[in-house]
Amino acid sequence: MLLFRIIMVSCIFITFIAIFATLRSANKPKKNMFMAVTLPYDVLESDFIKEIQKEYKSLCNKVYIIMLLTAIPCIFPFWIFKNITVYIFYMLIWCLGFAYYGIIPFKLMNRKVKSEKAKNEWFVGEKKVVYCDTKTTLLKNSMPISNKYFLIPILIGIIPLIMSIKNFSSENIVFLVVAILNLGVILLMFYIAKIFNKNKLKTYSTDSKINFILNKTEKRMVSIYFLINAIVESLIILVFYLIFFEYIDIEFFNIIIISTVVLSSIVALGFIYIKKKINDLDEELTSKNKNSEIIVDDDDYWIDGIYYYNPNDSSKMVNSRFGYNITYNMATKHGYFMAKKLDKIVLGATFLLMIILMLPSEFATSSISFNDNSPNISISSFPYSYDLDYNDIESITITNEPISFKLRTNGIATDTKCIGNFKSDKYGKCRVYLYFDGEDNTPKYIVMKLKNNKFDYLIYNTKDDKNTEKVYSKLQKNLD
Questions:
Q1: Cα–Cα distance, 70 to 336 (Å, whole number)
Q2: What superkingdom heads the lineage (predicted)?
Q3: What is the DSSP string of 164-208?
């Protein structure tokens, strides 16, 4: 369970860092903009802005403290949660809750600054004007990398799907679902990158050279980001499947830790790096020629400085004013679906999938029955039932020696039970049906050494040592 805890804590840590970096980025003026509100340059040095910065920092600190306090059950889950499914639900609600409500300080300050701007008439630039650099637009298609490169992650993503179909069974259905979802995520990344690349170019300056450099840098870096992200994810899933279906034998712990760190870093930090580089390049180029800078006051199109709604703009995706991401134009059908509907569909599907796949396994119990006809032994444990003939058993023992597994290729592993396919230094490949009492002592369990079987051993016990002994006696009697 140490591996599981590390993965969950890593998710919490990445979420905290992402929210911290996003909130912190808003407390510093960017060119002529503060809290996603367009302002004259001289206003940015006013006492009002300094007071807003102070108040915003105080609100953000409260959010950070609440996040850390409510993360304690996630960091030390088994002091509080005895049920792993409930723990995962809590962690998801924690992540999603702060992703949606952790940005409240920014919304409050955006409204406050916008209200003060209207009262003092701090308007700058032209309103409801769209600039277009036709010279730069002609070179639009040469800016991002070719879409054909996305064939690489798509082809890699198809391999796990083929493997899961080839090895399909009732207990392996989760692999098929994950393979389909993985391919869907890759295609979604390709689709988003394609839509972003088709968006109209942003006109930063009257100097076409500056517009070309900034637009090309952004489109190329964003398209490369999505491509690398898709390739990394598809490769990680492929390696997992090669391990799960025993095509390769690699230490699972090291692979999962490395892959989690790599993927999380790319997702959480990759886009932050890109947006920061574009912003720095924008300030560097436009600061050299202030007279050529184009300023448009389109605050009316930004709801709380986060949601973009402009019926006069055909762009489906635009650069966000807040944080290090992109957002959607909700005035378009596509943008409204992506901004308001897609996340709810994905979240609903995720929770439904968890309920379907995890709850039955979480509360399932194992039972063994003996038949007169072949197969002689049947172990029921949805969805990991197993049938065995007495002829497949070479020897049988009962023990309470401490046992550990270095790899779970399929099944359930918690502090109270292990069910499924495992690998052990002592027993090799084994089919396991083990219950633990949560104490330091190891309960009694039956070890069946197998022959002519894909497993080396079958390990079984019940929740009660006396019942385990009864099963052992009956097995021994039938073998004799």
A1: 32
A2: Bacteria
A3: HHHT--GGGHHHHHHHHHHHHHHHHHHHHHHHHHHSPPP--BS-H
Phi/psi at 349 (5° precision): -65, -40
Most confident of the following: 122-131, 174-183, 332-341: 174-183
d(CA 424, CA 310): 60
**Cβ–Cβ under 8 Å, residues 44 and 29:** yes
Residue 348, Cβ density class (10 Å: 0-12 exposed, 13-18 middle, ≥19 buried): exposed
CB neighbour list of residue 235: distance below 8 Å, 6 or more residues apart: 156
pLDDT at residue 243 greater than cutoff 70: yes
The angle subtended at Cα 220 by Cα 342 and Cα 127, nearest 5°, is 70
Distance in angstroms (rounded) separating the CA atoms of residues 44 and 29: 7
- Token pair, residue 130, equals 């769209």
Give the pLDDT band of residue 366 (cuts 50, 70, 90). confident
What lies within 8 Å, CB to CB, of 33 at 6+ separation is: 39, 321
User: Residue 153 and residue 185: Cα distance in Å, rounded?
Assistant: 11
HSE (side-chain half, CA atoms, 13 Å) at 314: 4
Give Cβ neighbours of residue 287 (< 8 Å, ≥ 6 apart).
none
**C-alpha span between 68 and 61 (Å, rounded):** 11
Omega cis (within 30) before 105: no
Cα–Cα distance, 379 to 431 (Å, whole number): 11
CA distance 246 to 298: 57
Written in H, E and C, the secondary structure of 119-130 is HHCCCCCECCCC
Side-chain half-sphere CA neighbours of 209 within 13 A: 5
Q: How many CB atoms lie within 10 A of CB 19?
A: 20
**Lowest-confidence range among 89-98, 247-256, 378-387, 420-429?**
247-256
Question: How many whole angstroms separate alpha carbon 57 and alpha carbon 24?
Answer: 8
Cα–Cα nearest to 298, from 289, 309, 290, 287: 309
Break the chain into its structural domains and give their ranges.
367-479
Distance CA 397, CA 160 (A): 38
Rounded to an integer, what distance in angstroms lies between the CA atom of residue 383 and that of residue 84? Answer: 18
Q: Which amino acid is at 172?
A: N
Task: For residue 265, give both structure tokens.
Answer: 């870093």
Distance CA 181, CA 174 (A): 10
